[in-house]
Amino acid sequence: MSERRWRPTGSEAAAALVSALLFALSFPPVPLVVPAFVCLVPVALAVIRAADDRAGWRAAARTGALFGVLAYGITLYWLAIALRIYTDLAFLGFIGALIVLVPVVAVTMMALYAARRVTRWPAAVVLPVVWVASEVLLNYLPQLAFPWLPLGLAVAKHPVLAQAADLSGVRGLSFWIAATNGLIVDAWLLRARRRAIWTRAAVAAALVCAVALYGWWRLRTTVLVPVGPVAVVQPNIPQTEKWQEEYQGRIVGILTSLSRRELSSDPAQLLLWPEAALPDNFFAHPDWADTMRTIAREYHTPTLFGTIDVVWHSPGDYEYYNAAMLTDAAGRIAAQPTYHKSYLVPVVERARSSPSPPTRR
User: Fold this and answer.
1) What angle do CA 347, 353, 356 make, to 5 degrees?
2) Closest Cα partner for 171 from 127, 209, 200, 131?
3) What distance in Å separates the CA atoms of residue 166 and residue 189, rounded to the nearest whole number?
4) Which pTM value belongs to this model?
5) Among 111, 229, 283, 318, whose Cα sits 20 to 30 Å from the Cα of 199?
6) In angstroms, what CA-CA distances link 298 with 58, 73, 264, 291, 307?
7) Residue (of 177, 72, 84, 73) closest to 124 by Cα position
8) What is the largest CA-CA distance in the chain?
9) Which residues of the chain have pLDDT under 70?
10) In whole angstroms, what is the distance from residue 76 CA to residue 148 CA?
């Protein structure tokens, strides 16, 4: 098979690049919302045209693969940074994530190509169906589930637009955003017919208005019922120090002092510490348990905190877990963690080694 068949053309590369840049601008911390509603237009337009021209499924695969490399390569750069703390081969973990994601995007664009060829339905119909199906697939891949970056996340910083998630979940928002992209694709393909353009623009505007009106109504009518004050402590511990044994005492001291200061000024009914707040096997540090008991008794406040738990199978066989534990208001701590984290962050948490050889309690 000729290598040339798999080399993107100039127009395919341009479409993939523009879509990837808009895709990267669609998600936090970027506060923009418009890019999400147009980010699929260039790449979908290239695939729809290929289907209409019967250019072959390889055109869709090439465009989708390049879009996947660029889009996820830009948005997931932090994987290499996060893994660099644990291994010099961090970049390979980043590449591994792309090796999983890029074929899914390529297959998604091939499915879009096939759906258009077989049904001849407009992009406003086939694009949201295919795109949301790919999001669901990524969410439930065994051992490789990647639930991040659904299109619906793009409106997370815009509460009025995000309220519709209580009707459909994030997938419904993704469907709406992908459908708007599809309407723009259809309008461009039918640009010689002014009425067709205005019809699709009106449908897109109506969808935005409907979602916004529902969001405005929900925000105005939802009654917030105070349950109780909660104190949240989030120290700023550099990752380069987080798992170093010599910094453990300092980290616990920071957590303790911040908690005392907060609870002294504003009494709370629950104190929350972050995930893996205590950076080692909790039961190997009796002084940590004493600290948790003292805070709870002194302020009569239960504390939910993250730590590391070790499960021993034999003297030399053990497993680490990212765990959550609870200290009640009387200072009692359960002999077993409240929760072991089951759904791990792809690549980063699956590749993380134990912070230090554990001490058996």
Assistant:
1) 155
2) 131
3) 34
4) 0.82
5) 111
6) 67, 49, 10, 11, 22
7) 177
8) 76
9) 1-5, 82-91, 93, 142-144, 345-361
10) 10
